[in-house]
Design a protein that fits this description.
With 560 residues, the chain is an alpha/beta fold. The chain contains 13 helices and 24 strands. Strands 1, 16, 17, 18, 19, 20, 21, 22, 23 and 24 form a ten-stranded mixed sheet that branches. It comes from Spirosoma profusum.
Length: 560
């Protein structure tokens, strides 16, 4: 009898606990948006994109995607691409591209050919975009170890196969400098000084690892020769570096110290031109018990640690900073078939991660008072590949993926960033230190206010790739004008702005019909929930109630 009573007591306790947990899980998250408390300008740090394969730029799907990227932002979009000086015939491959800009004749005299690199930059400029012009990699004729030159890397192969003759220092720094000078000079002649002044130039990529098969001093020497050549061709050009990897704070520190305090290899004076500082930041997803688990914290720590290095130097307080690659992990061309941890890329996991992580990038910038102007999403498109192969791309075969719609949402957010509080948003320190790993999801917000509009982005994110039904969220907005306000709700979830779910419902065809492609293209656009509605605002406040599933992202756009 005593055992029975004890068992009943335990069962009642378990039932009460289960009910409490259920009530906690389903109780509404509450966001409070104060339009009267401004934090800082809405810098379009989202409007920066990049990719390894520059020859995709002017191909069919590449041009289509660039047109869409240019259209989503109210300001010019910056584009960064590798291999702009790499030797070859322009045939693209994964993690490869070439322009053949520099060769030498039989006597060793330089031969410049800007045909392909012009085709790349023309594609940007025609769309009002700006190059974040990466000066690299080493032409075959200048490399100290030219053979083998073109790599034969494929997804699943060791990454070490990527780094071949293009990654080595030049055998002649003067010839390298002349190549850079001629390139920048040619750009000013083709596009005009004013246009080229609006670009940024930067040297190499991840020189702290095998993308640079030289030493740190050799990179610093190359930077001095490069920066001097850029400034000789156009004194008002903006030049920077060094695009070190996420864990390379010591390399970045040495680079900054050199630019500020060391003797220049070319001028023999102290310092080197520095108009822009760049570094990289990557997350680290893994498969745990058959499920992808993201690690946003790793990416956020990369950013925080690099920003702290920059903050050591008071003279760099206002210098523009760009996260030259800022992504959930490190290999865009590694699809989910060879790298199952990358299976997050096709659906709403990627889009909700992007919303939640970009909000923290702004917060880290605010915390240190630095001038972050860009965060390059190293994600573009891969021409003529399988549909939804799980590459880190924004579109597949010309069809936009859900993640692209987050950038469309950001493009609708202008003016000043304003204060947002949420009872379910992870504190910045917790997100940086431990990622988004606790039992509850991260229901957070990011908001802006302009003269005649306001916008609130809301997400429901967790590192564990798991679907869950929609939960109620209350968004209270204060500081609105009284009277009629028009509310438009945009949404990314499994039912809206999601070409991947539509493709799966079609049976995942690898050769979709024209009608199916048209349907997928439509599904890839940013969708609204119903029609716009009129809110009758009194006392400057309104409550908006939405239901948002796990991995969903909403944008509440208010106009008056």
């Amino acid at each position: 009898m005593q055992y029975t009573r004890l068992l009943i007591t335990c069962l009642i306790g378990l039932l009460v606990t289960s009910i409490a947990k259920a009530q906690t899980a389903t109780s509404p998250a509450h966001l409070r948006v104060d339009l009267n408390t401004e934090i800082g300008p809405m810098k379009p740090i989202y409007a920066w994109f990049g990719y390894d394969e520059p020859n995709y730029t002017y191909m069919k799907d590449g041009k289509k995607l660039l047109t869409e990227l240019a259209a989503l932002s109210p300001v010019p979009v910056f584009v960064r691409a590798h291999n702009l000086l790499t030797t070859g015939d322009g045939t693209p491959a994964l993690k490869w591209g070439s322009t053949n800009a520099y060769t030498e004749d039989a006597s060793g005299k330089p031969v410049y050919d800007w045909t392909i690199v012009d085709r790349i930059f023309d594609t940007y400029v025609q769309r009002g975009m700006k190059p974040l012009a990466q000066i690299g990699f080493m032409p075959e004729a200048l490399s100290t170890h030219p053979q083998p030159y073109k790599h034969e890397w494929k997804p699943g192969a060791p990454y070490s196969k990527v780094w071949t003759g293009w990654a080595y220092p030049p055998k002649d720094y003067e010839k390298w400098a002349e190549l850079v000078y001629q390139w920048v000079k040619h750009c000013t002649e083709r596009y005009g000084n004013k246009e080229v002044e609006s670009w940024y130039w930067e040297l190499w990529n991840e020189p702290d690892i095998s993308y640079w098969r030289g030493t740190l001093p050799e990179y610093l020497k190359l930077y001095d020769y490069t920066a001097d050549a850029v400034k000789r061709a156009l004194p008002t050009a903006r030049m920077g570096g060094c695009d070190a990897t996420g864990g390379a704070q010591k390399f970045l520190d040495a680079f900054l110290k050199h630019c500020l305090q060391d003797t220049n290899y070319v001028t023999k004076k102290i310092g080197s031109p520095l108009d822009l500082i760049l570094f990289h930041a990557k997350g680290s997803p893994k498969v745990v018990d058959g499920r992808v688990v993201m690690n946003m914290g790793t990416q956020l720590r990369n950013i925080a640690n690099h920003l702290q290095i920059i903050a050591k130097y008071p003279q760099l307080k206002q210098i523009p900073i760009v996260i030259g690659e800022s992504d959930p992990e490190g290999c865009a061309a590694c699809g989910m078939m060879t790298n199952p941890e990358n299976a997050y890329r096709n659906g709403t996991m990627y889009s909700s991660y992007t919303a939640a992580s970009f909000a923290r990038k702004y917060a880290l910038m605010d915390q240190l008072g630095l001038n972050l102007i860009g965060a390059v999403s190293w994600s573009f498109e891969f021409e003529n590949q399988l549909w939804f192969a799980g590459f880190r791309d924004l579109a597949t075969n010309g069809v936009d993926k859900p993640v692209l719609n987050v950038f469309r949402m950001f493009g609708k957010m202008t003016g000043q960033r304003v204060k947002v509080e949420s009872n379910r948003m992870y504190e910045l320190k917790m997100a940086v230190d431990s990622s988004i790993r606790s039992r509850s999801t991260d229901v957070g917000g990011f908001a802006t206010k302009d003269k005649k509009s306001a916008a609130v982005m809301v997400w429901n994110y967790h590192d564990e790739d798991r679907q869950a039904p929609a939960e109620p969220i209350q968004v209270t907005v204060t500081g609105l004008p009284n009277g009629n306000v028009t509310l438009t709700q945009y949404r990314i979830d499994n039912e809206r702005s999601n070409s991947y779910e539509v493709w799966k419902k079609m049976g995942s065809p690898q050769q979709p019909t024209s009608a199916q492609i048209a349907q997928l293209e439509k599904a890839g656009q940013l969708e609204t929930i119903g029609k716009s509605q009129k809110l009758n605002v009194a006392s400057g406040t309104t409550d908006i109630r939405i239901d948002l599933p796990r991995q969903g992202v909403a944008l509440l756009k208010m106009d008056w």
